[in-house]
């Protein structure tokens, strides 16, 4: 059984991004936009900024109170979009409920959209054209590739259908010639579908959802979930039970999370190149 070590692979991706940045005429500038005071979001954004700064990215953080209006935030995102010194924009989700996240994401110029969340980038991914894709699914692929896990012709099952993870994950796996099934909360007999998977990717947001009976012996299991429990950080996969049947598995923490941040750096470099026309 192989542990898919996200921290180790992330180090390599970050080092490659830092080397790329050193060759650019001007360092990329990433605007992380954080609204409100959700403690988990604060930790994620702090980690993202720290890694970016260490790689030579200019940190253009913007912080707004939970009571910011849609119009104020829209004006701020438009200003970042117009600012040539800002080469990437990340709007941390979720937003407080009075804000329309879709409308705000739509204001991000597609070539500054380091999260790959705009309609343009989702469409580019669906059509197989070059663009920016979401960091978490990109990180999952990078982690699988680093461990030589074959995707062409493999049965891949994705649990979860969010715009940030499940849907783009399915698109990326299709692009890599996997046979892709997408499951969700209304799937009948989730365990039976998951058991077909050679590669099982779980992004459901439900702690411990995947137990050993849902995993084919020898399968690769990637856990995108992250939950703060009294026993510490846990994923969507019952790690201790599933590791006994899986051929390879990601830990939480130390699996997909560090890869997400590493791919943010890679996307920030790609976005800077796109906006500079290189
Ligand atoms: N617009 C947007 N883009 C995102 O990419 C995005 C988002 N919104 N909203 C929330 C999720 C969550 N996310 C994580 C990033 C890093 C870790 C990470 O570094 N995890 C560490 C543990 C860190 C800790 O929580 O202590 C690990 O798994 O080893 C986790 C989760 C990005 N997200």
Task: Looking at this protein, list some descriptive labels.
Rossmann fold; globular; binds 5,10-Methenyltetrahydrofolate; methylenetetrahydrofolate dehydrogenase (NADP+) activity; EC 3.5.4.9; amino-acid biosynthesis
In total, the number of domains comes to 2
> What structural class do the secondary elements suggest?
alpha/beta
| Element string (H = helix, E = strand) | EHEHEEHEHHHEHEHEEEEHEH
CA gyration radius, whole angstroms: 18 Å
CATH architecture of the largest domain: 3-Layer(aba) Sandwich
CATH superfamily of the largest domain: NAD(P)-binding Rossmann-like Domain
Strand order of the largest sheet: 1-12-9-8-6-7
Associated small molecules: 5,10-Methenyltetrahydrofolate
Function: Catalyzes the oxidation of 5,10-methylenetetrahydrofolate to 5,10-methenyltetrahydrofolate and then the hydrolysis of 5,10-methenyltetrahydrofolate to 10-formyltetrahydrofolate.
InterPro entries: Aminoacid_DH-like_N_sf, NAD(P)-bd_dom_sf, THF_DH/CycHdrlase, THF_DH/CycHdrlase_cat_dom, THF_DH/CycHdrlase_CS, THF_DH/CycHdrlase_NAD-bd_dom
Protein name: Bifunctional protein FolD
Keywords: Amino-acid biosynthesis, Histidine biosynthesis, Hydrolase, Methionine biosynthesis, Multifunctional enzyme, NADP, One-carbon metabolism, Oxidoreductase, Purine biosynthesis
Short description:
It comes from Acrocarpospora macrocephala. By secondary structure, the chain is of the alpha/beta class.
């Amino acid at each position: 059984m192989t542990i898919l070590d996200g921290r180790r692979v992330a180090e390599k991706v970050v080092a490659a991004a830092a080397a790329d940045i050193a060759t650019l005429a001007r360092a990329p500038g990433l605007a992380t936009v954080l609204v409100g005071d959700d403690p988990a979001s604060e930790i994620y954004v702090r980690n993202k900024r720290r890694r970016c700064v260490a790689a030579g990215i200019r940190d253009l953080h913007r912080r707004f109170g939970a009571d910011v209006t849609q119009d104020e935030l829209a004006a701020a995102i438009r200003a970042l979009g117009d600012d040539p010194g800002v080469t990437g924009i990340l709007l941390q989700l979720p937003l407080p409920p009075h804000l329309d996240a879709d409308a705000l994401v739509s204001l991000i110029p597609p070539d500054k959209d380091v999260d790959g969340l705009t309609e343009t980038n989702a469409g580019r991914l669906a059509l197989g054209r070059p663009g920016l894709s979401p960091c978490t699914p990109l990180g999952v692929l990078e982690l699988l590739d680093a461990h030589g896990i074959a995707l062409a012709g493999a049965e891949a099952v994705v649990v979860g259908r969010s715009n940030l993870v499940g849907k783009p994950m399915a698109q990326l796996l299709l692009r890599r010639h996997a046979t892709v099934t997408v499951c969700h909360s209304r799937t009948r007999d989730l365990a039976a579908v998951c058991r077909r998977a050679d590669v099982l990717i779980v992004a459901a947001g439900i702690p411990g959802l995947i137990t050993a009976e849902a995993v084919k012996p020898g399968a690769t299991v990637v856990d995108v979930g992250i939950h703060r429990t009294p026993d510490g950080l846990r994923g969507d996969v019952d790690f201790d039970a599933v590791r006994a049947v899986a051929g390879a598995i990601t830990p939480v923490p130390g699996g997909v999370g560090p890869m997400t941040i590493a791919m943010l750096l890679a996307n920030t470099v790609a976005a800077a190149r796109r906006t500079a026309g290189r």
